[in-house]
Amino acid sequence: MIKNISESMKEYAEMAVQFAKNFFDADLDYSEDSLQKVDEVISAYRSGQVFDPKELTPEQEEDLWVFSKMIGGYVGEVIIRNLGGNWYTRKLDDLNLTIVLQIADQVEGSPPDMVFQCMTEPFRTVEAFYEEAKKSLSVH
């Protein structure tokens, strides 16, 4: 049976909860406050460094994308539970899709892409992404 993107992202979110507990003894409860713990997990996973995508092997890049989908799934589920939203995919080209979260029918973003950016660019955080989404909703 083929899963839809919402089911897949919920499964990734549950994987993130287990991952955070097993490897970093962090309890993720889908609250807004848990996003600070998510940033701590990301920082620990990066070991204080950022990854340079140009220096990654294909296997390392794939591992980073799996991690990004897992943590991004969790961040998206926090957004859905606290602000409202729906997952969907958007076709980028003939071979690639991107995972998008429409937040409260007003704002779009890609939590997995945002997590990937947190891993590859300094000073990015999931808390900032969440706060920006909240601020965007209050503007509409």
Core attributes:
3 strands; single chain; globular; Four Helix Bundle (Hemerythrin (Met), subunit A); 5 helices; 59% helix; alpha+beta; 140 residues
Question: What can you tell me about this protein's structure?
Answer:
The protein has helices at 5-24, 34-46, 58-83, 111-120, 126-139, and strands spanning 85-91, 97-103, 107-109. The protein has a three-stranded antiparallel β-sheet. The mean pLDDT is 92. The chain has one domain (5-139): Four Helix Bundle (Hemerythrin (Met), subunit A) (Up-down Bundle), CATH 1.20.120. It contains five helices and three strands, in the order H-H-H-E-E-E-H-H. The protein is of the alpha+beta class and 140 residues long. It comes from Desulfatibacillum aliphaticivorans. This is DUF3806 domain-containing protein.
Topology readout:
Blueprint: H1 5-24, H2 34-46, H3 58-83, E1 85-91, E2 97-103, E3 107-109, H4 111-120, H5 126-139
Antiparallel strand pairs: 1-2, 2-3
Q: Summarize this, please?
A:
It contains 5 helices and 3 strands. With 140 residues, it is of the alpha+beta class.
Helix fraction by DSSP (H/I, runs of at least 4): 55-70%
- State the CATH architecture: Up-down Bundle
Question: What's the number of extended β-strand segments?
Answer: 3
Could you say which structural class the secondary elements and strand pairing correspond to? alpha+beta
What's the order of the H and E elements? HHHEEEHH
Q: Name the beta content range.
A: 5-15%
Could you give a short account of the major beta sheet?
Answer: 3 strands, antiparallel
Instruction: Compute the average pLDDT.
Output: 92
Give the overall silhouette.
globular
CATH topology title: Four Helix Bundle (Hemerythrin (Met), subunit A)
C-alpha Rg, in Å? 15 Å
Provide the domain count.
1
Uncertain stretches: none
CATH class (first level) name: Mainly Alpha
How large is the count of helical segments? Answer: 5
Biggest β-sheet: strands ordered side by side in the sheet? 1-2-3
Through-space gap between termini: 39 Å
Organism: Desulfatibacillum aliphaticivorans
Protein name: DUF3806 domain-containing protein
